[in-house]
Amino acid sequence: MQNSHEVFMKRCIELAKLGGGNVAPNPLVGSVLVYNGKIIGEGFHKYFGEAHAEVNAINSVVKKELISKCTLYVSLEPCSHFGKTPPCSNLIIEKKIKNVVIGCRDIFLLVNGNGIEQLKQAGVKVVEGILEEECRELNKNFFSFHKKKRPFVTLKWASSNDGFIGKIGIPNFKISNELSTIFVHKLRSNNMAIVVGTNTALIDNPKLTVRKWLGKSPLRIVFDLDGKLNSNLNIFSIDENYLIATSKTTVTKFPEKNIVRIEDKKNSLHELLNYLYNKNINSILVEGGAKLLESFIEQNLWDEAIQIKSDKNIDEGIKSPLLSCGVCATKKVGNDTHYFYKNVI
After folding, report:
1. What is the C-alpha to C-alpha distance for residues 190 and 168, in angstroms, rounded to an integer?
2. How far apart are CA 102 and CA 8, in angstroms?
3. pLDDT tens digit string along 305-337?
4. Cα distances (angstroms) measured from residue 173 to each of 79, 159, 240
5. What is the largest CA-CA distance in the chain?
6. Contact 188, 209 (CB under 8 A)
7. How far apart are CA 55 and CA 80, in angstroms?
8. Mean of pLDDT over the chain
């Protein structure tokens, strides 16, 4: 039997997920207000720069006189600093809420225990660590970004049953099914940027946008170290939300604002990740091709990987990347199987 703290924290997590694709680089956060064992208010962080979960939960309560008698549940430690919005810890104290239950601490430098300490100093009883692992997993991008000082890197590729990711010389060779395509578009919407290599951009000419799922399309990034690509490709033609990582000192085909200068080709991945970290891009999805995926794997610059494996054989083609770690989860999606890997660094 679950205790009541876990039941209400699960609801916080459910609410938090509703902000997926809209709050980055901020974390996903959900919150509920409980009076006499019943939820009378709930909210989540809906959009980056707008009200936080605790504010929306408090504002949703119809009988305002009950707020001070409630226990507030929140999946992440309330903020204690002025950013785009005022501190949530101040609001909790102002509303005279005496009991706060928190899923996990916020490791962001300007919070990191300060919100909890502020509440305690004001006489608020604080309970921490309820469904802590689930709450941390909810914001793996956010936590990894602040811990590793680089974006959270997810690798994704589709392969045939016999270990190939495409046919040589055949653009956009379809391996996975339509349900897997929808899943990939959901993945895109949950990442701030998407990265491909020169050959993928040149041969497949992908759009790299979110079309089969609700959510924002990510920043499109292509490695073009030798300046081979032209501006008429889809990746550059949709809008100006793209970057080109190149070692060329002079680029005339693209606006300078869309250029990321790579000083050392051998260190290109590190240079790009450092650039994105400084731009507050906390997650990237690497969609190929094989050479780029293998480079991330060889340099151990990845956090999660997803292999979408079809039941079809294609006999020959471009070989699928290989990981040395074991599969941590699988999911059957029609005639495809999704394999999930985690890199324990």
Report:
1. 30
2. 11
3. 999 999 999 999 999 999 999 999 999 999 999
4. 47, 11, 27
5. 70
6. yes
7. 13
8. 94
Cα dihedral 232→181→280→58 (10° resolution): 130
Q: What is the pLDDT of residues 188-198, one digit of tens each?
A: 999 999 999 99
**Under the phi-then-psi rule, with left for phi > 0, alpha for psi from -120 to 50, and beta for the rest, what region is 183?**
alpha
- Over its C-alpha atoms, the chain yields an Rg (Å, rounded) of 22
**The amino acid at 209:** T
With b for 16 or more beta-carbon neighbours within 10 A and e for fewer, the 212-242 pattern comes to ebeeebbbbbbbbeebebeeebebbeeeeeb
**Catalytic option among 14, 50, 54, 65:** 54
For the chain, what is the HEC assignment?
CCCHHHHHHHHHHHHHHCCCCCCCCCCCCEEEEEECCEEEEEEECCCCCCCCHHHHHHHHCCCHHHHHHCEEEEEECCCCCCCCCCCHHHHHHHCCCCEEEEEECCCCCCCCCHHHHHHHHCCCEEECCCCHHHHHHHCHHHHHHHHHCCCEEEEEEEECCCCEEECCCCCCCCCCCHHHHHHHHHHHHCCCEEEECHHHHHHHCCCCCCCCCCCCCCEEEEECCCCCCCCCCHHHHCCCCEEEEECCCCCCCCCHHHEEECCCHHHHHHHHHHHHHHCCCCEEEEEECHHHHHHHHHCCCCCEEEEEEECCCCCCCEECCCCCCCCCEEEEECCEEEEEEECCC
Q: Other C-beta atoms within 10 Å of 264: how many?
A: 9
Locate tokens 């990237």: which residue? 284
CB 213 within 8 A of CB 184: no
Active-site residue flag, 54: yes
CA distance 343 to 325: 7
Global pTM reads 0.91
